[in-house]
Automatic annotation (TrEMBL), chains A, B:
Gene3D superfamilies: 3.40.50.1360, Winged helix-like DNA-binding domain superfamily/Winged helix DNA-binding domain (1.10.10.10). InterPro entries: Carb_Metab_HTH_regulators, DeoR-like_C, DeoR_HTH, NagB/RpiA_transferase-like, Tscrpt_reg_HTH_DeoR_CS, WH-like_DNA-bd_sf, WH_DNA-bd_sf. Residues 3-58 form the HTH deoR-type domain. Keywords: DNA-binding, Repressor, Transcription, Transcription regulation. PROSITE patterns: HTH_DEOR_1, HTH_DEOR_2. The keyword DNA-binding applies. One of its GO terms (molecular function) is DNA-binding transcription factor activity. It holds the Pfam family HTH_DeoR. Repressor of the lactose catabolism operon. Galactose-6-phosphate is the inducer. It comes from Nocardioides mangrovicus. The keyword Transcription applies. This is Lactose phosphotransferase system repressor. SUPFAM superfamilies: NagB/RpiA/CoA transferase-like, Winged helix' DNA-binding domain.
Length: 259, 259
DNA sequence: GACGATACGAGCAAACTCGTGCAAAGCCAA
DNA sequence: TTGGCTTTGCACGAGTTTGCTCGTATCGTC
């Protein structure tokens, strides 16, 4: 059997029961326990479940690699490559943040990975992203400001005018912006109507804009224009991103970081 | 059996009964008492329950870091009597809420109990209380609005001007107000400077005020005046509350509910 | 305050689970 | 087919969990 399909079956089995043992899974899928252990290790690293001694449990809904954020938006399960790309982008982005700075972390699945990198750092994080809250809730060193809003459970975020209003009170050093697509003409776009105004307010509240976009976001999808890559101070991306689009940013004086 | 799953079963068993003995749990889960003791120790340390001699009781809901909130204010450990009083107050308060209403839930340890009672109900909840968020995060039927603010980890709440600003956008049917004390002269007081303005804004945003105060809050402590019991539409309390203070509310046309 | 009963935690041996290294099997392209 | 690569199952040393025993601490009762 193909690895990916087996892993999907494991996730489904866990979803239905909430937990499963290595032995049980090995019996159900007719493979050895070693194989199950290897699969569980991968799935754990991708945040799709939480490994326990002797088995695994479903990850607390939507904490890291939300099947919603990724599954809904892109029509498939997060796969190793994508999560890995995001993790590299997140690490590179976090490295740009200096101690004492105020950072706005956007909605999305990449920003919680940035948040994780910021653990233990002396920074202030502003967000509407509950996954970010979850990452930093117990970290005393990070000052965390949660913008208000209506809870959108599927995306683990807060939206609405309250978030925009709250941003009016914020002055940040940098915003880590995520999006659903970057067009060949340099337009940074999103496909969520409720998020777009918040993203625009985040941009307005921040001195510097850092765009987080793995190669998969070129060109991506989405009709709502947030800004242009020419407006951003830095694009953090991966090797596969098209040079032509990145050049638009470079020519406008923006930095391009390939993680 | 998987450790984690067993611990979840223990917590569930406790939630349904409120308390359980080591012997009973060992029999139910078909493991030795030693194992149960070890599990209880872990769960106690995580704040998910409170160990007692011979068994355990549910920790005051809101879990984990919650003991700071009350531990700091009222002494080290969860107090069975107090939790029980709060639970009764919370149930009586929740019973007052009609379907479709908008409810503001204050900071504190009683309001998460109200939130739990509201699970599955068709209501809108407005709060700065992360313990309330935690209770309702996965309940699709409740519409949840989180006010913004700076995370105050010890008290699992959001404070600051952003919360007050956010409340300006809110029009609620009722606020479930908590406090640290109700003076014999009827003054409802609190001892947290950062919370008082938010509580006042909550009152302003709501048509009706319901004060949640177990008998322990009479007279309680605190120097910051929030309002008078004469201003509230209902006081939900317990048997031991002084009649004289409650009469102030009654004479002003307020309802008094003894849970 | 003393006593018997019960509960507690530490220590220990046995059972179980883990991850890794390795060889065989499976797959793909040339 | 061959050759290179990935995946799988097994063996094994290391680490974790479990149930038992035993000395100590706590509870309820006298």
């Amino acid at each position: 059997m193909i690895t990916r399909e087996r892993q999907n079956r494991i996730v489904r089995a866990l979803r239905s029961d909430g937990a499963a043992s290595v032995r049980q899974l090995a019996a159900d899928l007719a493979v050895s326990e070693s194989t199950i252990r290897r699969d569980l290790e991968v799935l754990d690293r991708n945040g799709e479940l939480t490994r326990t001694y002797g088995g695994a449990v479903v990850h607390r809904p939507g904490t890291t690699v939300e099947e919603h954020g990724l599954g809904v938006a892109e029509g498939r399960f997060a796969d190793d490559v994508d999560v890995d790309l995001k993790r590299r982008v997140a690490a590179a982005a976090a490295a740009r943040i200096a101690d004492g700075q105020v950072v706005v972390l956007d909605i999305g699945t990449t920003t919680p990975l940035v948040a994780r990198e910021l653990r233990g750092r002396d920074v202030t994080v502003v967000t509407t992203n509950l996954a970010v809250l979850h990452e930093l809730e117990n970290d005393e060193s990070v000052r965390l400001i949660l913008l208000g809003g209506v809870l959108r459970r599927n995306y683990r975020s807060l939206v609405g005018s309250m978030a925009v209003q709250g941003l009016a009170e914020v002055s940040a050093d940098v915003v880590m912006l995520s999006c659903t697509g970057v067009r060949p003409n340099g337009h940074v776009v999103d496909n969520m109507a409720v998020e777009a105004p918040i993203k625009r307010a985040m941009i307005a509240a921040s001195q510097q804009i850092v765009l987080l976009a793995t190669e998969r976001k070129f060109p991506g999808t989405g009709a709502l224009r947030l800004c242009s890559v020419a407006d951003v101070d830095a694009v953090v991306t991966t090797e596969g991103a098209p040079a032509a689009t990145l050049d638009i940013a470079r020519q406008a004086g923006g930095e391009v970081v390939v993680a």
